[in-house]
Design goal:
204 residues; mainly alpha; 2 domains; three-stranded parallel β-sheet; 6 helices; 3 strands
């Protein structure tokens, strides 16, 4: 979930930056105003399309987390009602869970509340990626999406690994890195060469 939240913040920030750059572009003298305006809108639409594609996987993770949390809350409420817990009865809220989840999963900085607890299952899933503080962190030959890169960064930071090698491992559509890259304070060797990275996040 932390990786997904990092991806959403990164994509939102890059989207805003690119849209602002397009808006500030000056019209060439020999180009009609209407044509230039259409050209700007085309570029903005392309940015929005790319951002939405990058957000898709991460947004799904955040939404599923909200569903699981709602389901857990409902189970606890039902358990309290069955056991006759008067405190639970006073705070029962039978609001439509679908509406609640829809509001909570809106992609914005306010909705990206970082969870503090570690996820054992997440760490287990990336044991083959991040080994230990004294060995190389690497990935297999499969190209990585922005979401997977964020997950690797989160697990590298938690494991204390000192080397992260992602040379040529990123999908071509990954043009920037998650802002969580700034968490890699223990990493002494970081290789993102042979990828199409256009810029590093300001957290570096």
């Amino acid at each position: 979930v932390e990786a997904a939240q990092s991806v959403l913040k990164t994509v939102n920030g890059e989207e805003e930056k690119k849209l602002e750059e397009i808006s500030k572009q000056e019209k060439p003298e020999n180009v009609p105003e209407e044509l230039f305006s259409v050209f700007q809108e085309v570029k903005k639409t392309m940015v929005l399309f790319q951002s939405q594609d990058q957000r898709k996987e991460a947004a799904h993770v955040v939404e599923m987390e909200g569903l699981f949390q709602t389901f857990d809350d409902l189970i606890q409420t039902a358990s309290g009602l069955v056991s006759g817990d008067t405190q639970v009865q006073k705070h029962v809220n039978l609001e439509n869970p679908g509406e609640k989840i829809g509001r909570e999963t809106v992609i914005s900085d306010e909705s990206l509340t970082m969870k503090k607890e570690d996820k054992e299952s997440e760490r287990d899933g990336f044991k083959s990626v991040v080994r230990s503080a004294s060995t190389l962190s690497s990935v297999d030959s499969e190209k990585m999406s922005l979401m997977k890169v964020a997950a690797v960064i989160e697990n590298t930071a938690k494991s204390g690994a000192v080397v992260l090698d992602l040379k040529g491992k990123l999908e071509d559509r990954v043009e920037w890195l998650p802002i969580s890259l700034g968490k890699l304070s223990e990493v002494t060797e970081l290789d993102f060469s042979e990828n199409r990275i256009m810029a590093l996040p300001p957290t570096m």
